[in-house]
Specification:
376 residues, Core-2/I-branching beta-1,6-N-acetylglucosaminyltransferase family protein, 3-stranded mixed sheet
Length: 376
């Protein structure tokens, strides 16, 4: 009896080992035969790593409102729309001005000989312009009063876009002011815009008081603070994006109601935030994140540097026209500077096609230098 008790534990040990091994073999066989049903099998047998978690449907952080669902469906369908082809594609030059355009003679020189490749639209908010160039005569659209920094500025931009979209041959849409001048010749500008794969909308994140500090939580849930962006109002759009702006009412309404001067003790300017935020949210890869219109903010004032007659030289114009990096600086105490190369279809190219802000007194100097500084 004592001998049998002494040998019993030695008899049990191999039995348990056999049982454990058997279970392990059965497990391996099952996960090999049915790998898709086991997370362990995914990692053991998949030579490319486990992708099961990636394949699981993602759960949205919140339920979308009806308006957001409608907007996303419309935007996605518009973004999938192939470009419209026409025999004579044109650039729509849209001028946003209070009255007369002091550089019409310069633009006349720029446009001359290219009559079938451009169209002109003028929105004059204060008084009807007296035109001196044939290219501007009869090109005034119905205009309304525009107040700086208010939603009426966006309304004027949309009014220009609406009139320009009527012409199916308009493929690119450039917003310009009365103080803008061309930095290159027409052929260069036409090829730069017509053969690009993005819209030139300025867009960057500014955590400072002149950026995210202007955000209002009243924009929730559709516009979150993390998506709020800033940029120059001067843009160049492809037709697809111009139509999206016409189609949007949801996000436009948020900016109309909650991005305006002296709201909740803050000054928010919709023309600096609406388009950058909208396209950052719906098509971030479809915009360049810089504007093709050069503005010099280096003086750190509320308004950009303005050029007088004595400032306008060949060297100045060629210097601006050859800049090939975009520059952004935040408005917080860190004053973080971001410099990025201007890439045109993946190649580094000059950033700017137009420049502002030029005083009317510079016209004669610009006309004299035009043929030289616009030579590619």
């Amino acid at each position: 009896m004592s001998g049998s008790r002494h040998h019993r534990p030695h008899l049990k040990r191999p039995v348990w080992i056999i049982v454990l091994v058997s279970f392990f073999i059965i497990f391996l066989i099952s996960v090999y035969i049915y790998p898709s049903r086991s997370f362990a099998a995914c990692y053991i047998f998949s030579p490319r790593g486990c992708t099961m978690f990636e394949q699981l449907p993602t759960t949205p952080s919140r339920e979308l409102t009806d308006e957001e669902t409608i907007a996303q469906v419309v935007f996605k369908e518009l973004l999938k729309t192939p470009p419209v082809h026409s025999k004579s594609p044109k650039i729509a030059f849209m001028f946003l001005t209070p009255g007369n355009l002091p550089f019409e003679r310069l633009w006349d020189k720029f446009f001359h000989g290219h009559e079938d490749r451009f169209s002109v639209y003028v929105h004059a908010s204060s008084e009807k312009p007296v035109h001196v160039s044939r290219y501007f005569v009869g090109r005034d659209i119905h205009s309304e009063k525009v107040a700086w920094g208010k939603i009426s500025m966006l309304d004027a931009e949309k009014r220009l876009l609406a009139h320009a979209l009527v012409d199916p041959d308009n493929h690119q849409f450039v917003l310009l002011s009365d103080s803008c001048v061309p930095l290159h010749n027409f052929d260069y500008v036409y090829n730069y815009l017509m053969y690009t794969n993005v819209s030139y909308i300025d867009c960057f994140e500014d955590p400072g008081p002149h950026g995210s500090g202007r955000y209002s939580e009243h924009m929730l849930p559709e516009v979150e603070k993390k998506d709020f962006r800033k940029g120059s109002q001067w843009f160049s759009l492809k037709r697809q994006h111009a139509i999206i702006i016409m189609a949007d009412s949801l996000y436009y309404t948020k900016f109309k109601l909650y991005c305006k001067p002296n709201m909740d003790g803050r000054n928010c300017y919709a023309d600096e935030h609406y388009l950058p935020t909208l396209f950052y949210m719906i098509d971030p890869g479809g915009i360049a994140n810089w504007s093709v219109t050069h503005v010099d903010w280096s003086e750190g004032k509320w308004h950009p540097k303005a050029y007088r007659a004595q400032d306008v030289t060949f060297d100045l114009l060629k210097k601006i026209a050859s800049i090939d990096e975009s520059f952004h600086i935040t408005s917080d105490q860190k004053k973080k500077v971001t410099i990025q190369p201007c890439l045109w279809n993946g190649m580094k190219r000059p950033c700017y096609l137009f420049g502002r802000k030029f005083y009317p007194e510079t016209l004669d100097r610009l006309l004299f230098l035009f043929s030289n500084y616009t030579t590619v």
